Structures are given as C-alpha cells and as structure tokens.
Amino acid sequence: MNKRWTIDKIREFVEKNSESKLLTTEYQGFSQKLRFKCSCGNDFEKTFTKFKNNHQRKCDVCQPPKASR
After folding, report:
1. Do the Cβ atoms of 43 and 37 come closer than 8 Å?
2. How far apart are CA 15 and CA 21, in angstroms?
3. 19: which residues sit within 8 A by CB, 6+ positions away?
4. Helical H segments across 19-58, by residue range
5. What is the pLDDT along the chain (69 residues), one digit of tens a residue?
6. Cα 39 off chain centre by
7. What's the confidence (pLDDT) of residue 47?
8. How far apart are CA 63 and CA 26, in angstroms?
C-alpha cells in the first residue's frame, strides 16, 4: 500500500531527517517542487522524492549536485 504523504507528514520527516526546514505550506503531489531553508540560511527547491530517496537534503552550496555521467 502506498503511503499518502501530507504536508504535515513531510514537515515531520524533514525535521527528523535533516537540518533543513520546510517552507512550503501546501503539498500538491510528488512532482511538485517544495521550498526548504538549509541550515546555512539558503533557500532551495527540491521535489520531496529527491529529498527523501536521493538524500538531497541541503542547498546546492552545502551539497553540490553530483556530476552527471
């Protein structure tokens, strides 16, 4: 069974699993980019799927994107 993510469940996941803070207040679906504030103070956007599954939990300054193959 698929877990239905709500904005409250996402906020809880972000607080428990990263140093970032969720700024977005509504969740439309998995393809939506969410706004976060990194622990360094920078704002950044990621889909929740990338944040959760790919461990992209910081801004591009603190965690630069991996070089593509």
Report:
1. yes
2. 7
3. 38, 39, 57, 58
4. 48-53
5. 457 899 999 999 999 999 999 999 999 998 999 999 999 999 999 999 999 998 899 999 998 877 766
6. 13
7. 95
8. 25
The length of the chain is 69
Rounded Cα–Cα distance for residues 5 and 41 (Å): 26
In terms of C-beta density within 10 A (0-12 exposed, 13-18 middle, 19 or more buried), how is residue 21 classed?
Answer: middle
Going from the C-alpha of 69 to that of each of 10, 57, 66, the distances in angstroms are: 30, 21, 9
Q: What is the model's pLDDT at position 1?
A: 42
Q: Which of 39, 40, 45, 49 is nearest to 18 (CA)?
A: 39
